[in-house]
Design brief:
This protein is mainly alpha-helical. It has helices at residues 14-35, 65-71, 148-155, 164-176, 181-187, 195-213, 222-225, 230-245, 248-283, 293-304, 311-326, 328-340, 352-393; strands spanning 2-3, 11-12, 100-106, 115-121. It is built from 13 helices and 4 strands.
Length: 427
Amino acid sequence: VLPCSCGCGLPWDEADAKRARRSLGSSMADLKDILGIAGEAGRPSEPKEPRKPKEAVKRPEGVHREVLALTGGALPPVISGAPLGLKEKRKTGGVLKHPWKWKPFKSSARSDGLQLWHWIREDREQLNGGDYYFARYNKVVDASLYSDEEYASLLEGLDDSWTKRETDHLFDLCHRFDLRFTVIHDRWEMDPRSIEELKARYYSIARTLILSRGVEGSANHPLVKEPYNKELEIQRKRSLHLALTRSKQLEIEEQDVLAEAFRIKEARRQEAERKELLREDSKHAGGLGRTSTGLASFDKFMKCAPGVYLRSQLLKSVSTQQMQQLGPRGNKRIEQMLAEHGIPRTPAVATEACCTSFLSLRHDLVGIVETQKRLARLEQELSSLRDNAQLRVGTSQAPAVAGTPRYEPHCRRCDRVNSKAGQPQGR
């Protein structure tokens, strides 16, 4: 074992040393060839190791050359002995289990008794009772038929514009074409009638027959619960025709009309809300006075309640009523106002004068918060009305001249006017 010449301290084995000498020798030989220097005459050349011949792998029978090259000869231990070729034909034994026969047949869907022939399996011959297999799909609509007595007593006076001959022809077409009134109208051979007139005549007679015959469940029959309305059907088709034949310009105009109707509806709703706010303001005129429910109930309790009671407990109950009236955001605003002035949430000493003053202060704060809410609503309503007015006029305000301050009568936030320059002054 030789040490490594790079100084890493790792040992070399003999094979590594031999490969290193061979690489160095080939590099020196190339360098001498470039410089034109002949090699050393007395230096013996190292014998080359003979290459071992590769063992030829015999290709097994039934294995393709490409498969053998991909697998490298590592084939499964057991090779399937199935023949490589087409699928083996099914052995039938020469006799069919269910032979096919050429037989005549008649269909119950036909009324003329026509006899035809077809191929059919022997085991399916009696599957449908000897009837044609596809006769089951002949679904016939139950078109109500009437007798001469029923027509004379019930149907003759329903519509004087129809004769019995026309009615018989209509019901014959309904029975033949399964109530397909478009086809019935096309096959109509008497005085011209519209599809709506044909439908109205048929459904009116069918409804009358159902009610007169006393059929079980006739009260819940669709023709009884929802009778056919000819005028409504005509109006529906006319509206559908207008909707399908309208132009693009008409659609745009209709959308504009709907948008204008929605804008008017919103304006009316906002006007109703504004009137409601004004009504509330009129009820709360002088609202900062000491006439609130909580304070009045406190004074009443102070005067009328006999015996011993806790002012602190009464104070909490009145404060709770005010909190329920304002909501969480209003209560938080009142607490912030009290904290700004260094006032505790509840008085430390619950004397009569202290509780009365504290409730009076809370009542004033409640009035301030409610007034701020109403003011915010009115400002929002005023801003909406101004925007709508600008949209109606279609012109915006003229831009201010350079160096000239913009003039507005009032500020939208605080509603104050600058006393020096006559300009709005916000907070």
